[in-house]
Amino acid sequence: MSLSLSNGTTTITLPGNLLWEDELAWDPCSQVVEQTLSGAVLVEEFTRAAGRPISYRGGLPWVQLTRTALLALQALGAPAGVVLTLTHHDGRTFRVTPRRDGDGWLKALPWPVVGDSGAANPSAGAAYSIELLRLLEIPA
Known about the structure:
Elements: E1 4-6, E2 11-13, E3 19-20, E4 29-35, E5 41-47, E6 53-57, E7 64-66, H1 67-76, E8 84-87, E9 93-98, E10 106-110, E11 127-137
Antiparallel strand pairs: 1-2, 1-8, 3-6, 4-5, 6-11, 7-11, 8-9, 9-11, 10-11
């Protein structure tokens, strides 16, 4: 099964060798610990309904995408409040939105060129690598 993002009408297949770097870092249980004036400790735990960060890391030379596909991916996640369906390699699906808290949700770099690189504006087929794709699971 392939890795993909969809808004219901448009589906973009992502490079299969993106690595989900924070898959095991998220805990569905959260805890608040407070100490009372008497010295007792109060512990409250709850299950999170959503909010899981999903970050895929790529990089040269493993994750290659054309400029056209990269621009389509950028457009898919551009609207404010967009809800996307992420289908993971193993068939799991997640309801996600781009994680825009800081450094941006999509980082990509053009592949290095040698010799005469041609025109200043890259062609539609120019190769890029996805460095980081940052998503956030949201409740259904």
